[in-house]
Specification:
Belongs to the peptidase U62 family. GO terms for molecular function: metallopeptidase activity. InterPro entries: Metalloprtase-TldD/E_C, Metalloprtase-TldD/E_cen_dom, Metalloprtase-TldD/E_N, PmbA, TldD/PmbA_N, TldD/PmbA_sf. This is Metalloprotease PmbA. There is one protein chain. This protein is of the alpha+beta class and 452 residues long. The protein has 2 domains: 222 residues, PmbA/TldD superfamily (PmbA/TldD fold, 2-Layer Sandwich), CATH 3.30.2290.10; 216 residues, no CATH class. It contains 9 helices and 17 strands. The strands form 3 sheets. Strands 3-2-1-4-5-6 form a 6-stranded antiparallel β-sheet. Strands 7-12-13-14-17 form a 5-stranded mixed β-barrel. A hairpin with a 2-residue loop joins β9 and β10. α3 packs parallel to α4. The radius of gyration is 24 Å and the shape is globular. The relative contact order is 0.13.
Amino acid sequence: MTDATPAVDDSRQRLARLEGIAAQLLDRCRAAGATQAEVSCSEDRGLEVNVRMGEVESIESTRDRGIGVTVYFGQRKGSASTADLREESLAATVAQACAIARHTEDDPASGLADPALMARDLREFDAWHPWDLDAQQAVELALAAEQAGRDADPRISNSDGAGVGSGTTLSVYANSHGFVGAERASHHSLSCALIAGQGDAMQRDGWYSHALAPGDLEPAAAVGRSAARRTVERLDPRPLATGRYPVLFSAEVARSLLGHLLGAVSGGALYRGASFLVDSAGTRLFPDWFSIHERPFLQRGLRSASFDAEGVATREAPLVEAGVLQRYVLGSYSARRLGLETTANAGGVHNLDVAANAGSLEDLVRGMADGLLVTSLMGQGVNTVTGDYSRGAAGFRVENGAIVHPVDGITIAGNLRDMFLAIEAVGRDIDPRSHIRTGSILVGAMTVAGAD
């Protein structure tokens, strides 16, 4: 696909308007007696189309905006929001936030981030690639993906649909420290889901492409063919005996393991005592070759940013180094609750790179010899307090370093502490569709509950 940037791009003017609204609201907050204040303004535009079996199912065009105001009276906090830009609505939003703050209790951890931490080097990271795509063009792309998938294999018996999505976001964050930060980003996707087989033997799978620039999307026909291949590969699953097996998580599901880590080291879970990794900073969680680094300044990175949701300057920093957890993931509030300093992660992490020590997925399959390749996970069976892990899964049986047949209806179980330490390899087959940039991950042994 090729980039198709609109001939007239008014994003700078719209950002300037949002900055003006933010400044006006901060002035209103000061006039109302707030000791500190912060404002978030955003505009979103998008197009979503869905087709199924050659017919259009839905077309949705969206234009949304939001204004959020938070005020502090000492250590009392109040927040209110609106989507109405009329003067009376903006004034009422500030008044409502102030009224809430005056009726709340003091919270010693509340307040803006330290003014010395505000970002000063504000940059863009090649995230703005709007797509001049109308509804008819989007429908044609979705139909092309679906048709390519249906034509790819005679065993494809039905379709669960194909879709195209495109959107842009403009956002401004400003606070009473004098910080004003503006960001603009685009996002585009193309997906297809298919059904193979008949009756009780039917299997469903799919594929999608996601990128900040339309030129980085996979071609529609390639998405459809990938969906078809993945679907027919799942036909005729065989039972798997219950036991202990090496488990290889393909890249698209491997990132969920790192998502559980992030949930456990996030400030909210830690200060509530709702994490199995309380007091774990500085301890070994992974093998000594394993590392994860945060890279907020990647060009065209999915989560690149100069500042976090509080205006704090982001920075490159290890999360895990030589297997040891180096820090938590904190905003200023959770940091104060824990007696620590913010890690510039209010609003989440920015592009995590997981270091690889192995080759392709095929290399990992050959190297594991005998085990299970997991390509799909179901359910939410993860206890963040204990680290206990139990999820439904589907994938492929591996014997003598080769895939021999599909399996489904199984459950894989373990404890995340044990699973992290048992990681034997991370592949170089990075899935580019996530800000958690990891390849396939091989865990040395897990309990697998099969058909028996």
